[in-house]
Write a structure and sequence with these properties.
Low-confidence stretches: none
Largest sheet: 12 strands, mixed
Distance between the termini: 67 Å
Shape: elongated
Radius of gyration: 33 Å
Strand order of the largest sheet: 10-9-23-22-21-11-20-19-12-18-13-14
Helix content: 25-40%
Length: 658
């Protein structure tokens, strides 16, 4: 070879794409047939064995070129990325089958080994096989540029004779799985590439620990779905993402608030098995706040989740909770009850304000009847009440009300409200204004004897606390402004309570974020994390305006609000949420109903069968906002090292595992 030819071949093996191929990638065969969507790769048993095996779903790189003394030289600056989807028949497959049958028969009849009843040429012929591969796209470089670009197709189909196919080395596999590679503080090493449940050959070939790096920014202000059956690693994945975002926030000095709805108390507490938990990301309530029904007063991070249902400062929030809790009761009296408006009118409108006071008497009486205990009302309630009737009422209920001016009386306790409401409700003819069509008193007092409404109201009793002050939803909004991690422990209530409380909080956050947006202020960057999302989401159950989760999926992008939701039921998630989901991490699903639903998105149809069959914990198929294709990943285990990395970034001391 001439000097000029040697220099040319050398340059063709040192281009960015050629460098990839020459970085330990192993040749496994050549393309036998190629079209725009699929490729058939001719291979043999020896090459597959030398490469460490070629599992289903494996990435392959096809390059047009040839081997030289300097390495593999590319004819063109492009690599075709393939994914193994199965095997393919060879043109002489029927002849090979006949030969294999004869070999098996002869070996069985003679008691000899297979190699003893075949010649070398036949043995080589019998080892030929082919892969059926999906064409994922093309890596290429533009003229006069070293930047590698990816296109999600191929722009030409040529004779395949020059295409050699390579199994990526660990380094190249990590690059392919992480493309486009994140940099700086945007890097999260989420796990390692994993193609199969059986990993023996991958370990032998040293390709079982190819790191997968993702862009942390992909998971901020975007929707992320984490799907999988119980015990397949959903919680581990969420803890890893939450910790990575906290680390990124601390390193970059960008405040990102994170709110976790925790239905089982798993995130609010330290795991007893590994002594690790998200609450360790902070030592006090400046970084971490955990909202519980019964907080530990000795831990400054723990705050009360309760509201004082008799505090008029949170009347709108309380009425919203009660209305949502009774929503499943679909009777006429329940609908009339929910139609009541407890918004306080202008005090100058005496008629409207009097009716509002009477409705409030009925509401506080209902709460007292349903077991919402309190010695006194935080703010005494003054109402219009005829003096002539007051004497009769006080004879039956001494000290329940006290005079507060001409035609006015004051109630100071919930029990007094219940007594007065019950007494007035039994005398509609004596109190016509309390019962007319403009009054909401009868709509509220009228449900006292209907167990459907009263049972529903009792279901949220755990969230009432007489010492609580302010609105938890507003406190959480302030936490998000300050970039804190806030965990709402909903384990003390039932599914209805969790649904009602979480929807009210999300609605409040959306409304406050909307106010910020409309005032042209910088958005509050925050993440909302929902575990067991199938208990909270309701597919097609409400219009957008009434469904905070759908509102979140549609409005959150402009508000810089992200959503991470985890569930084992893809079909439980509203299609409007799925359609707006940017990141997908999918572990084992045991139903074709769920995998069929999943198959409507990206190319998850390719993985449907393995998702149903393989149950390994932490083994997910991942598609992120930045990535161009699905990557199978073994998610790294959440541990103290992750927690301490976040603490170090925040300027805190490391914690030791007990």
């Amino acid at each position: 070879m001439s000097i000029s030819s040697t220099i040319l071949e050398s340059s063709r093996t040192s281009t960015p794409l050629a460098t990839l191929v020459n970085s330990g990638c192993r040749a496994v065969g050549g393309i036998f047939r190629l079209d725009y969507a699929r490729a058939v790769v001719l291979t043999d048993d020896w090459r597959k064995s030398q490469a460490g095996g070629v599992p289903h779903g494996a990435f392959l790189l096809a390059a047009a070129g040839g081997q030289t003394a300097e390495g593999f030289a590319l004819d063109d600056e492009e690599l075709i990325l393939l994914r193994v989807s199965g095997t393919a028949p060879l043109p002489n497959e029927s002849d090979l089958v006949q030969t294999r049958l004869a070999v098996v028969r002869d070996a069985g009849d003679s008691g000899k080994g297979f190699d003893e009843v075949t010649d070398e040429l036949t043995r080589n012929e019998l080892q030929q096989s082919a892969f059926d591969c999906e064409v994922i796209g093309t890596f290429y470089t533009e003229p006069n540029s070293t930047a590698i670009v990816f296109g999600s197709d191929i722009d030409n189909v040529v004779s395949s004779a020059r295409y050699q196919v390579f199994l990526p080395s660990e380094k190249v596999l990590s690059w392919v799985a992480s493309y486009p590679e994140p940099e700086g503080d945007d890097v999260l090493t989420l796990g390692a590439v994993r193609f199969a449940s059986t990993r023996r050959r991958a370990r032998a070939a040293a390709v079982d620990s190819a790191d997968v790096h993702v862009h942390i920014d992909d998971f901020i202000a975007r929707k992320t779905a984490v799907f999988g059956m119980t015990r397949t690693g959903k919680s581990n994945t969420i803890k890893t993402l939450v910790t990575a975002i906290a680390t990124h926030s601390a390193r970059t000095g960008t405040k990102v608030g994170q709110l976790i709805f925790d239905p089982q108390g798993e995130y609010a507490n330290v795991n007893e098995q590994d002594k690790t938990g998200l609450r360790l990301l902070g030592d006090d309530d400046d970084a971490v706040r955990i909202y519980k029904v019964d907080p530990d007063p000795s831990d400054t991070r723990e705050k009360t989740l309760r509201l004082n249902f008799y505090d008029r400062d949170v009347l709108d929030a309380v009425w919203g909770l009660v209305s949502d809790a009774t929503a499943p009761v679909n009777t006429n009296y329940a609908k009339s009850f929910r139609s009541a408006d407890l918004t306080e009118p202008d005090v100058s409108d005496h008629s409207a304000h009097n009716r509002w006071g009477w409705a409030l008497v009925a509401f506080y009486g209902l709460l007292a009847k349903c077991g919402f205990t309190a010695q006194a009302l935080p703010q005494p309630l003054r109402i219009a009440f005829p003096a002539a009737k007051a004497t009769d009422f006080l004879n039956a209920n001494p000290n329940a009300i006290t005079p507060a001016g001409t035609g006015k009386y004051e109630l100071s306790s919930p029990q007094a409200a219940l007594s007065l409401a019950t007494w007035v409700a039994a005398r509609p003819d004596e109190f016509p204004k309390w019962h007319d069509e403009n009054s909401r008193f009868p709509d509220i007092a009228g449900v006292y004897d209907y167990t459907g409404v009263t049972s529903a109201v009792r279901s949220i009793r755990a969230f009432h606390g007489t010492v609580s002050t302010g609105d938890v939803a507003e406190q959480l909004w302030q936490d998000m402004i300050e970039g804190r991690l806030a965990i709402v422990d909903l384990s003390s209530g039932n599914d209805l309570v969790a649904k009602v409380m979480s929807e009210r909080i999300v609605t409040h956050l959306l409304n406050r974020a909307g106010e910020v947006f409309r005032s042209n202020q910088d958005p509050v960057r925050l993440q909302i994390v929902v575990e067991e999302a199938h208990n909270l989401f309701e597919r097609g159950g409400k219009d957008v305006a009434d469904n905070p989760w759908v509102r979140l999926s549609k409005e959150a992008a402009k508000y810089k609000m992200g959503l991470i939701y985890a569930t084992q039921e893809v079909t439980s998630v509203d299609q409007r949420i799925l359609s707006n989901t940017s990141n997908w991490l999918v572990a084992h699903l045991n139903s074709d109903k769920e995998t069929n639903e999943l198959s409507h998105y990206y190319d998850f149809r390719t993985w449907a069968e393995s998702l149903r069959r393989i149950e390994d914990q932490g083994f997910v198929r991942m598609k992120t906002h930045s990535s161009k294709y699905i990557v199978p990943v073994q998610i790294a285990k959440f541990d103290h090292a992750m927690v301490n990395a976040a603490r170090t970034a925040a300027g805190l001391k490391s914690v030791e595992a007990d």
